[in-house]
Amino acid sequence: MALVVICGQPCSGKSSAARCLAEALSDSECKQTVRIVDETSFHLDRNQSYANMPTEKNLRGVLRSEVDRSVSKDNIIIVDSLNSIKGYRYELWCLARAAGIRYCVVYCNVEEMQCRKWNGERREKGEAAYSDVVFEDLVRRFENPGRRNRWDSPLFELSPQIDGVEKSCVAIADAVSYLTKKVDSKSRDVKVLQPTIATQNTRFSDANSLYEMDKATQEVINVIVEAQSQAIGGPLAGISIGQGLLSINISRPVGLPELRRLWRTFIKLTGQTSLSGRPPPSDADSTKRMFVDYLNRELGTM
Asked: What protein family does this chain belong to (predicted)?
């Protein structure tokens, strides 16, 4: 039914906010199962997980995969982690969009000095805390959520330093209301994300169709790679894929690893069987059109 992303500086009260929100949802008339996905669920040490970029990337991948497996229209998933990188919050937003569910961000807005103080107090008590090196690095790289970003909206802002974290907090109450409010034709303040054409089920029914889809999308990637090699890293506008097909516009270099990641996500999303409705044509041109549309959407939002 919904995906909730908790974000904030290290030691800003995120886990308390996640627990309070889960309890408040359980106390409400919400009939959906509420589950918190966090590092603790996987017995991950925070200092080791954020010691360097590869381990941090692995941590985000583990959490993202678990969210991907868990999101559905029958439960509410709360992601309790730093979620400090806007690109990562965007990826989570995409998972919610593909599932066709509600999405929101709860931001624990606490001053840096207070976070540093709380981290030191935890260390003195022998509780889980960040090392000074890891803490300073995470604080420096934190990217504040913005209401204008669709992947940060709607945004419910908590002030643990001033108001504490309680189920009665205005932000918690507003989030519960948003997540549980009944949606009908008159609802205007609750947004249920809708899958794009690129995420809708094309229902490829046999091995040959899957082969043709793979072949068509790989042709698109090859065209992009070749065009970029000729441009020597410069911006590209109007990369032609074929007659009658949309062009691809790239304003920044897009490496092969990123293209392959987008390709894998596209293949996965188009193979989902959870969505209803008439499937689009599965010929090569239609597949290319869908993939180009998907790439234009994804590359145009980063």
From this structure: Belongs to the KTI12 family.
Q: What is the pLDDT of residues 86-145, one digit of tens each?
A: 999 999 999 999 888 999 999 999 999 999 999 999 999 999 999 999 999 999 999 999
Cβ(2)–Cβ(101) below 8 Å: yes
Rounded Cα distance between 165 and 158, Å, is 8
pTM of the predicted protein model = 0.66
The 3-state DSSP class for residue 110 equals: coil
Distance CA 168, CA 171 (A): 9
Residue count of the chain: 302
Gap between the Cα atoms of 276 and 219, Å rounded: 29
Matching residue, tokens 């040959």: 208
Alpha helices per DSSP H over the chain: 14-27, 46-49, 53-70, 86-99, 112-124, 132-141, 160-163, 170-180, 207-231, 256-270, 284-299
